[in-house]
Amino acid sequence: MTQSVPTETTTRHVDVLIVGAGLSGIGAACHLQRELPGRTYAVLEAREAIGGTWDLFRYPGVRSDSDMFTLGYSFRPWSEPQAIADGASIREYVRDTAREYGVEEHIRFSTRVVSAEWSTADSLWTVTAERTGTGETETWTCLWLSVCSGYYRYDQGHRPDFPGEERFGGQVVHPQHWPEDLDYAGRRVVVIGSGATAVTLVPSMAGQAAHVTMLQRTPTYVVSLPGRDALAEKLRRRLPDRLVYPVVRWKNVLVSMASYQLSRRRPEVMKRVLAKATAKQVPADVDVATHFAPPYDPWDQRLCVVPDGDLFRELRRGTASIVTDRIATFDETGILLESGRHLDADVIVTATGLELLPIGGMTLTVDGEAVDLSKTVSYKGFMVSGVPNFAMTIGYTNASWTLKADLVARYVCRLLAHLDRNGYAAATPLAPADGGVEPFIGLSAGYVQRSLTALPQQGARAPWKLYQNYIRDVLLMRRGPVEDEGIRFTRPVRERATASAGERAA
Questions:
Q1: CATH superfamily of the domain spanning 12-155+356-497
Q2: What is the predicted pLDDT for the residue at 501?
Q3: Rounded to whole angstroms, how far apart are CA atoms 154 and 160?
Q4: pTM for the whole structure
């Protein structure tokens, strides 16, 4: 039977230690309980609440940019009417899932993992964690370590230094640290940025602010999707959610994949499709070529989704506007642009991106040797070469995060079962023999490019290459063999030593 998280001050031991109680971590714990109920586990969470990203971000309008039929868990249907859900609803969905599957009692909050050391002799991870607020340390041991902390840095976002910022007489805020008491009603707001956060903030603030301006240096492809899924609503009138959910989930997977493949194979066609759709929704005085036609191909960076065209609606109403220019300097009353234009502002929101922090900033050591993630090669997108019994969950860049997180969680269960059946102690990925490697993530977005050197690399072919293709990964991770050229399975050291001694005696 699974056990609750121990609270004694001595070294704690579990079979599986999960780092992070967000969307990925809760999903990993649920899969473990469902598929390997005899395994003991614990979840260590640095913050004081379940939800991860969806508990951290509290800016106006925060929502998913993936539909909830694919962002939701495969084992727990999303039953709300909104397909593009707000952050609070997603947070409650994750918390309700943890409560329903009894994961809550396995979570140790305010516990940040600092380091993890693997011992081949003991076939064991020794994990050091720090209690936030007190600074006290505690030690855990485990057979398997799954890091589900995503790759965003939680304590700070990307924040460029703007010239003259100290002169600005209003308030400057970053969406990652949104003040609860910020009053922007009737005030002029400038949102700096063009990504998912900016296109969410602008329509959400436009209803109360005097005016909201989205100031972007480079445009982004923006696509409008219905806030509700028409097929789901039609099927729900006739079928229960447990039948509707997989049908709509696969429909959305296939539509998303088709869009991505068209973008990569025929980018000029996709550009025309996006430009035509945008031109129908923006007012006549908004030049699509200037404000919605980036200098890169679709899916070189992630597309921005706006539910029911809310951004375009506010542009038509005149409550919001979009400016494509560069900042010369802040001044006492706003922002002076390089074109000479001045944007008056009472509040400036710097939606300037995120910082990446792989595996939550923890350090890894294998038999006394420090692991440099940038020198490792990813195996099937979730393990890294030379590091035994270790998984890191990173979702898709071209689809829902949870689609990949679910595959990873289930594959970890497959590996653990395989270790048990065969008497193995460790599963260690190997780097490709041909040495061919590529960057781990193929997006040109700033937050990715700034941090590529801290991420593992990927190989040029399977099982080391990240194809960003859900169907291919389903075949690889659900149906494909567990043992292949990219991974080595070993028995406990003592057992190997005994076998070797026996062979020598014989």
A1: FAD/NAD(P)-binding domain (3.50.50.60)
A2: 45
A3: 17
A4: 0.91
